[in-house]
Write a structure and sequence with these properties.
2% strand, globular, mainly alpha
Length: 212
């Protein structure tokens, strides 16, 4: 088995776009009280990278892309409902609908991370990268579980202290680093068509005549 295609060399690789999108979505860069890393921009970057990796309308990257595109809209609505871009971390809101939008935004983001990791895992497993797939699997579980626990704590349903938020942030950073490091892998290239296997004629060499 060989990979058959070279890595991506035309602009930002798709996996790097996804990683940069996560930086916008989960990071914060404040200037005069405003967060300059707008979530909708991050989700658009994710959707763009996923579109480049998509091979059909039914593959895992297509489902992840659809959710990323939907999250661009949801996060934009959450931004408007919050009243100001810098108040994403403020869990308390006097308007119930605002809390519902924030919860949908948070849980949708966690689900999007899960589907994106799932799509990448399914892409790299047939290529024999079992260690990379296992690492992504661990990270997506950690991001999902710690994210849900952090959401519950933020709304007063659990008292977990700051360790949960720190651990969650660390797993997100690890996920972003893994995506950046694998960005130039051939199987995460827009031109990737799957592993190239040896021809049937070569595989059949040495078989006795008439053996089926």
């Amino acid at each position: 088995m060989n990979y058959g295609q070279p890595g991506w060399s035309g602009g930002m690789p798709p996996a790097a776009k996804i990683a940069t999108g996560f930086v916008f979505v989960f990071g914060a860069l404040r200037f005069n009280g405003f967060d300059l890393l707008f979530d909708p921009v991050g989700w658009v970057l994710c959707a763009s990278g996923l579109l480049q990796l998509q091979r059909s309308v039914n593959d895992p990257f297509s489902r992840a892309r659809s959710l990323a595109a939907a999250m661009a809209c949801v996060s934009f609505i959450a931004l408007i409902a919050s009243g100001e871009p810098s108040s994403r971390s403020q869990a308390d809101s006097p308007i119930p609908i605002t809390q519902l939008i924030e919860i949908a935004n948070t849980l949708g983001a966690l689900l999007a991370v899960w589907l994106i990791a799932e799509a990448i895992i399914r892409r790299i497993l047939p290529c024999g990268d079992t260690s990379g797939a296992a690492l992504l699997d661990v990270l997506r579980w950690a991001v999902a579980v710690l994210g849900v626990l952090g959401t519950l704590a933020g709304y007063g349903y659990a008292d977990l202290g700051p360790i949960t938020a720190i651990a969650w942030f660390a797993t997100v950073v690890a996920l972003v680093v893994v995506l950046y490091r694998s960005a130039h892998s051939p199987y995460l290239s827009p031109t990737w068509e799957g592993p190239v296997r040896e021809s049937a004629g070569t595989a059949d060499e040495g078989r006795p005549p008439g053996a089926d």
